[in-house]
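Sample entry follows:

_____
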Amino acid sequence: MKHRKDKTPPELPKVRSDLALAKEATDKFFDPSNEQARKSIYDRLREKFSGVYYRKQGKGHGVNFREYFVYMAVEHDDVAETLEAQSLDIVCKELRENGVKTTR
């Protein structure tokens, strides 16, 4: 984003597989004690990304986790979400003060 106004923006990063990304995340954010632990971590990360991890726990059926995580990484706006939540809290408070029950 910081280069969006440059006349010659840098090239986009190369596309990497979820396996390559999981291995990179494992090496960067975890400190596996051996190769077996490393494999366990990156397999779990891949399962979370694909949704297999959640479905094994009986959750997330019908959810496209790849699409969800890409949305969260690219388009999600925490500021907008926070402002919306604060606005909803204010509306609910006003409703309660005027005798309208709310569940928030």
